[in-house]
Amino acid sequence: MSGKQPVSDYAFDLPDGLIAARPLAKRDASRMFVLHRRTGRMEHRMFRDLPGYLEPGDLAVLNDSKVIKARLYSEDHAIELLLLESRSPGCWTSLVKPGRKMRAGVEIRVAGTTARVTDVLPGGERILQFAEAPDLEKFGALPIPPYFKREADAQDDERYQTVYADAAGSVAAPTAGLHFTPEILAAIPHTFLTLHVGIGTFQPVKADFVEDHLMHEERYSISAESAQAINAAKRILAVGTTSARVLESQPPGPVRAHSGSTAIFLHPPMALRRVDMLLTNFHLPKSTLLMLVSAFAGKETTLAAYAEAVREKYRFFSYGDCMLIL
Q1: Could you write out the DSSP letters of every residue in 34-61?
Q2: Residue 51, in any domain of the structure
Q3: Domain span at residue 218?
Q4: What is the 3-state secondary structure of 82-133?
Q5: Is there a domain that residue 1 lies in?
Q6: How far apart are CA 214 and CA 206, in angstroms?
Q7: pTM (2 decimals)?
Q8: Domain end call among 119, 139, 159
């Protein structure tokens, strides 16, 4: 165990009142904490100020994945399902609650059809085979984070998606992108990649030491057009930890068009090789996302910035304010 980092090193005190359970009236009205990682200097700005921090040749890389309405309830409301990934037409890897009622062979009525448990995976996930493809738009709900402590509603249908969401497949929003309006997006040079955010976003780190945590795997794709833009850029602004993970998953050399999956876990003392700037929201204590930010900005610098954000009453988590790390 010698030399390993305790997960407790990434704890911080966060008052419940700073957790944003609802979005602001306007997407671009968020505050933006600016952290200069090499000097530790901090600025308190607004998200609308973002274009002023970019120079000629810079490129913002955004994740255009769209959140699917992956939360379903059985017709008798006894079973809650969270569809994680489509394995084939009508077949999904899913989380179920309560698990004791969903053993292999059990069949339930859900989303206007039937679903049968064909297998139980070692991690507790169920493989569900639907008689007909479930109509998620009609029967499903967006899987908003559990710390909202409420059900998803019509406001979430609009605001828990980025304005540029396109490729359906995520079960959590790439939240750094929620601040963008079409106008701000048009004001900065940008390109898109796709990473479908998985359930690992919701899951706490259960290991005592950072190095013992097993990262979840997520599917991604980079188009030829985006690869060309990334390779030509002077500096890269990764919009969100999801974009950063895709970029840092690529092998040395020019970025190439590629579809695959990544389970990369970025944490100190690792360095990020392809990301020059990072726009991200404020993350949960002891989370892999906070560890990624710490790998980019340094653990002590990051935790000092978070302490300042708490003092200045920034709004935290998915619907909260953002941080620009230069």
Answers
A1: EEETTTTEEEEEEGGGGGGG--TTEEEE
A2: yes
A3: 7-67+144-325
A4: EEEEEEECCEEEEEEECHHHCCCCCEEEECCEEEEEEEECCCCCEEEEECCC
A5: no
A6: 9
A7: 0.94
A8: 139
